[in-house]
Amino acid sequence: MFRTYSVLRNLHRQSRNLLNVQNERLATSLTSSYKSHVSIDKVYPNSNPDFLRKQSESPKVSSLEKFEGYIPIDQLEIATSKSSGPGGQHVNKVNSKVEMRFHLESADWIPAWIKPRLLEQEHGRVTKEGYLVVRSDMTRKQMLNQADCLNKLRNMIYKASELPKEPTAEEVELKEKRMAKAKDGILKSKRSRSLIKQNRSSPEF
Amino acid sequence: MLNGDGNMSSKVTERALNLIKSMPRVALNNIKPLPHTAFKKKTDRRGDRKKKGRGDKGQGARGTWDPLGYEGRQNPLIDTSPRERYYAQYAVRRQYPPVSLLDLQRLIDLNRVNTSRPVDITSICNTGLFKFDISKNHFGVNLTDEGCDQFAAKINAEVQWTSELVIAAIEKNGGTITTRYYDPQSLAALYDPLAFFKKGHPIPKCKLPPQDALLYYSDPNNRGYLADPEKVLEAREKLAQKYGYKLPDLEGDPFKEMLLMRKDPLQIFFGLEPGWIVNLRDKSVLKPKDDDYLRYYHSAQ
Fold first, then answer.
1. pLDDT on residue B194
2. Shortest alpha-carbon distance between residue B230 and chain A (Å)
3. Are A110 and A135 within 8 A, CB to CB?
4. How close is the nearest chain B Cα to the Cα of A46, in Å?
5. pLDDT of B33
6. Where are the domains of chain A?
7. How far is Cα A17 from Cα B154, in angstroms, rounded to an integer?
8. Has residue B48 been placed in a domain?
9. Phi, psi (deg, nearest 5) at residue A160
């Protein structure tokens, strides 16, 4: 009975191999001919189907007036270690904590005017050598912790780049109107109070 | 007694015929009416009286009963516990049984799956380790993120459901992933292609997703097969920035063509068109030539 079973299994495997295309040349023609009415090149005629092509080199870093959110990953030093907290064997053995550091002053991807503000706001995270350090062991997965580090870093830089907002002409007008109204109310109550006080004394002739 | 073709007739028929001969003529004194046509005498006259059998006054007489389950002003039993719709629309809801990235990595490491070809639901079924059942509303595979840190294979994956972390894990290693919808008829062919080809039916054309799934499969963030390739490119870069990896440069890569391989939205097998019949015994493929057939198998309707 076992022999019959192994024979059947071999037959099954052979038939599966028949379906597996071994020839390289045939493989490249697998995608070629069939195009239906709803093929992607017909639905999106202006789109280049090659989404694996290389885009232009770091386009966002060129304009250093404003931080756009782009962080060059290869300019960061990323280290992994074991996380803290409960978790048994998993937390003891797996490197899920991520530490990200870079030299703040020599980072060319952060606009220059943001750097001193960032240094001031995050002085606790900057080492003596001038390295900004961001750590995360929030989740069980290293990838998610790395994403968390980047998120934190981005938020820090955005916060440091926040400028105090000038009030618009509309806002100024509105504020003046409200102040005037409040002032009128105060004066009205003062006048009525004054009358009451005057009425308590005897009139002067 | 002989019948028409010269054989002896049976005893039963003989006896029956003799009976009919000896019976009296049908007359009024030897027939009776059918049961349902007989005049039904109403013997029970209880309900015919003044109160029609409803008694004195009250809800019984006036037909103003409380609703079923009402318990005076007390909270009725049916309202004492909350409604939990665990099985609401269970027969209609689509299910995607999970296969983790860890499972997939193990399959690749043990050579159960060929990574030099696109890895789709058929490749997973052919390993024999994962079974899917159409009768249980299994609409394909859900690739989960367990083992995303250990995943280190460069593959062209085609699944039916996945999450952002899985997409990041696969693209980080230089691979591609697509989410793709298959209708149950196509799935029957995909789960066991060998059994399907043995039946000799023409390869079905895959239907477009239902309304509630169309948005998911048209979204570039899910790498849907109906999404705009330009937007997929942008989404890849955004994800790389979010998860902190550099997208590998595949310019001179020999695998690039394989990674870009995609089935047409109506196609279910690579290299085979809908409408073709695969003859395994003669090792041939039968293709329709009629214009009507070709029009049918090239259109979505």
1. 96
2. 6
3. no
4. 9
5. 84
6. 74-160
7. 22
8. no
9. -70, -25
* Total of domains in chain B: 1
Q: Under CATH, what is the fold of the domain A74-160? A: Double Stranded RNA Binding Domain (3.30.160)
Over residues B179-224, the pLDDT tens digits come to 999 999 999 999 999 999 999 999 999 999 999 999 999 999 999 9
Residues of B in contact with A77 (CB under 8 A): none
Q: What are phi and psi of B15, to 5 degrees?
A: -65, -40
Taking one residue from A and the other from B, the number of pairs with CB-CB distance under 8 angstroms is 124
| pLDDT computed for residue B44 by the predictor | 75
Judged by DSSP in three states, A167 sits in: coil
pTM above 0.90, yes or no: no
Cβ contact, residue pair A96, B232, below 8 Å: no
Shortest distance between the Cα of A23 and any Cα of chain B, in A, equals 11
Q: Which residues of chain B have pLDDT under 70?
A: 1-8, 46
Q: Is residue B51 part of a domain?
A: no
Residues whose CB falls within 8 Å of the CB of residue A117, separated by 6 or more in sequence, listed in order: A160, A161
Nearest beta carbon to residue B242 from set A76, A100, A147: A147
Which residues of chain A have a pLDDT value below 70?
1-32, 56-63
Sheet of B142-144, strands arranged across: B98-100, B142-144, B161-162
pLDDT at A45: 96
Residues in B touching A38 (Cβ below 8 Å): 208, 264-266, 300
How many CB atoms are closer than 10 A to CB B128?
12
| Neighbour count for residue B247 (Cβ, 10 Å) | 18
B142-144 and B161-162 as β-strands: parallel, antiparallel, unpaired? Answer: parallel
Does A73 contact B149 at a Cβ distance shorter than 8 Å? no
Are A146 and B271 a contacting pair at CB < 8 A? no
Residues of A in contact with B267 (CB under 8 A): 34, 36
Residue in A with minimal Cα distance to B113: A20
pLDDT at position A3 is: 45
Task: Please answer yes or no on whether A31 and B226 come within 8 Å at the CB atom.
Answer: no
Does the beta-carbon distance from A31 to B262 stay under 8 Å?
Answer: yes
> pLDDT per residue over B230-256, tens digit each?
999 999 999 999 999 999 999 889 999
Provide the pLDDT for residue B45. 76
Q: In Å, how far is A121's CA from the nearest CA of chain B?
A: 23
Predicted local confidence at residue A63, as pLDDT:
56
pLDDT tens per residue, range A23-65: 444 444 444 589 999 999 999 999 999 999 987 665 555 457 8
Question: Does B221 reside within a domain?
Answer: yes
Please say whether the beta carbons of A136 and A152 come within 8 A: yes
CATH number where B148 lies? 3.100.10.10
